[in-house]
Design a protein that fits this description.
alpha/beta; seven-stranded mixed β-sheet; five-stranded parallel β-sheet; 14 helices; 22 strands; 32% helix; binds flavin-adenine dinucleotide
């Protein structure tokens, strides 16, 4: 044994690294084990950060090519350099992953490089390039994240049949890309490659995209993406995918028809969801149990069946989002330090970083109906928002759902410019139990997109000013 810790966190993603930093801040002697070679997990290395970088860069390219001319900015010969774009993205990733390493040093978190295996409830063995080191610890947090799942019988080889990881690093623009799955990862990556010139088709098993999202917003979202040129085959099941070498043949069938169709594409992106990653942790032997979906079972305090072993992030139940993992990491660290850490699962925002963005927090109309809660709706279109109008970004709307008796805000759903940032105001309002009237009476700066939020809140009481 080379060291004794109060806490060893396995996994250096947003759940794990944030947990480790908070635990160290609270005086626990903490280590974090990461096998990837860089910190930051899926999010910083092959998830949130590189995808947002490419979304931003591809949007700039698209605007320069398609929008600038009409706005009186005449640039000639706009050309795409995919290699440079990728290196730009890689630099952003590198800066941020190194940043986490710096934060570990600053907070005195020991960074253990290698694969962590739970040897016993009080010891973790780290394997690194043939070297094996054992560490004693009072507590363990499992934050090992998730991996892209595939369809039955389909092998993702990251050549023509790719996951989001390869879709973030293609060396050239494919002529055609078929995205399997109309969730946020597929739609974000589809948007990137569409803007850069690929023909993009999305095949989705359900009759709508982005399951779980307020249906009115998801329908509007699909219409806007279709207008941008993304093709949709909804209510369609993929039957088989064959790699023909230079192309991929995708056989699919509409759920309303009996005859299959085929589509050929240069690449197909499998974006049908992610699965919790627990391989090689030794969970069975230790007695840490999983549910039927392979997620580690935890109680309200994030404890597994073994009381001093905790789990957080994508590896447990709940939305697979970086900020949800971070909140759980902080809650566990605070619980370990004797504080009362908790996560409010009713107020976890979700954002899709397409153009326009889509953002939501709280319950959708469908959920409220299911829960038998009576609600009022206030809606305001960006078409009537002055800032959106001057910026030529008038698609979308703000929709506020409030309790019909108490007026308390129960859910906010926005599709429109910059709403990924705007949703934070609504999350804060909901954390404080705000009513729609509270938001309506809050002064919002003019001219900003956030005035659409105030107007939607006024619309809950049928008194918007500008619509
Ligand atoms: P991860 O980030 O997956 O980290 C787990 C880490 O554990 C990994 O680095 C892994 O190498 C390591 N590990 C696993 N086993 C071991 C072991 N035995 N020993 C040592 N290390 C181990 N979420 C958002 O909120 N916003 C977004 O915009 C967003 N965009 C995304 C885009 C894409 C393309 C993808 C794929 C995901 C995106 N996500 C986004 C989801 C987000 O990345 C995850 O929800 C988040 O990373 C989960 O954090 P985590 O800490 O639970 O796990």
């Amino acid at each position: 044994m080379s060291d004794n810790f109060d806490l060893i966190v396995i996994g250096g993603g947003p759940g794990g690294y944030v947990c480790a930093i908070r635990a160290a801040q609270l005086g626990l002697k903490t280590a974090c084990v990461e096998s990837r070679g860089t910190l930051g997990g899926t999010c910083l290395n092959v998830g949130c950060i590189p995808s947002k970088s490419l979304l931003n860069l591809s949007e700039n390219y698209h605007k320069a090519k398609k929008n600038f001319f009409n706005q009186g900015i005449e640039v000639s010969d706009v050309r795409l350099n995919v290699e440079k774009m990728m290196s730009n993205k890689n630099k952003s990733v590198q800066v941020l992953t190194k940043g986490v390493e710096f934060l570990f040093k600053k907070n005195k978190v020991s960074y253990l490089k290698g694969k962590g295996v739970i040897f016993s409830p009080t010891s973790v063995v780290v394997y690194d390039q043939g070297k094996k080191t054992a560490y004693n610890t009072k507590n363990i947090v499992i934050a090992t994240g998730s991996y892209s799942s595939s369809l039955p019988g389909v092998k993702i080889d990251e050549k023509n049949i790719i996951s989001s990881t390869a879709a973030l690093s293609l060396s050239s623009v494919p002529k055609s890309l078929v995205v399997i799955g109309g969730g946020y990862i597929g739609l974000e990556m589809g948007s990137v490659w569409k803007r850069l010139g690929a023909e993009v088709t999305v095949i989705e098993n359900l009759p709508f995209i982005t399951p779980g999202m307020d249906r009115e917003v998801s329908n509007e979202f699909q219409k806007i993406l279709a207008k941008q040129g993304i093709k949709f085959k909804l209510n369609s099941k993929v039957l088989s995918i064959k790699d023909l070498g230079s192309e991929v043949k995708i056989e699919y069938q509409s759920n309303e028809k009996n005859t299959p169709d085929t589509i050929l594409a240069n690449k197909t992106l499998i974006a049908v969801g992610r699965k919790p990653y627990t391989e090689g942790l030794n969970l069975n032997k230790i007695g840490v149990k999983k549910d039927e979906k392979g997620r580690i079972k935890v109680n309200k305090k994030f404890q597994t069946d073994i009381k001093n072993i905790y789990a957080i992030g994508d590896v447990i139940d709940g939305p697979m989002l970086a900020h949800k993992a971070e909140e759980e990491g902080i809650a566990v660290a605070e619980l370990l330090a004797g504080q009362s850490g908790h996560v409010n699962y009713d107020v976890i925002p979700g954002v899709i970083y397409t153009s326009p963005e889509v953002a939501y927090v709280g319950r959708s109309e469908e959920q409220l109906k299911k829960d038998g809660i009576k609600y009022k709706i206030g809606k305001f279109p960006f078409l009537a928002n002055s800032r959106a109008k001057v910026n030529n970004e008038t698609e979308g709307f703000v929709k506020i759902l409030a309790d019909s008796k108490s007026d308390r805000v129960l859910g906010v759903h926005i599709i429109g410019p910059h709403c990924g940032d705007m949703i934070a105001e609504m999350a804060l309002a909901m954390e404080f139990g705000a009513s729609a009237e509270d938001i309506a009476r809050t002064c919002h700066a003019h001219p900003t997109h956030t005035e659409a939020i105030k107007e939607a809140a006024l619309a809950v009481d049928k008194r918007p000013i500008h619509f």
